[in-house]
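DNA-3-methyladenine glycosylase II
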Amino acid sequence: MWREAEKFLLKDKYIAPLIKKWGHCEIKPKLHTDYFQGLVGDIVGQQLSGRVADVIEGRLRDKIKGRLTPNKILSLSDDELRSCGMAWSKVGAIKDLSRKVKSREIHIRKLSELPDISVKSELIVVKGIGPWTADMFLMFTLGRPDVFPIEDLGIKNGFEKVTGKKFDKIKSANLAEKYWKPFRTVASWYLWRSLENQ
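Tokens:
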């Protein structure tokens, strides 16, 4: 899926060595999946390791007994949600997302049809969904090819390691746009991989 991006980025002095080392980009979009469940998972996973997030999400699914839906989430008390191991702020965010999807303030099924900027503006109306979560949704759920998540700590660290330049949100975003557009998502994946030991 990302062959065109890899071919383009092989011309870049920063990313080309990473493509040679790590092989093909492994982002697999989850198009046509249940975006509500995905966003609940994204909220749960904020600032947590994947393993911890999976445990909390598993407890939530056990409590709900199956598929996560706005109605099922709203039928639980805040204390019941909190008992799954998530912070109060995440309880509030998941409830807010559920209310906004139920009232159709967010058109959850239409997100894949919208341009990136519109997806972000739909999502950040939810209390607890900011630019980072919206970027992760664009990259990993919708598989959008040209997202550069400047709020991500791994991107900051990877950028500094790979380019040798101090990360600055504006200057670094400009460099990414100049050299990696229209495939900044794929370049970002390689920046993350650069932080792994192999």
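The chain has two domains: 3-27+148-193, 35-141.
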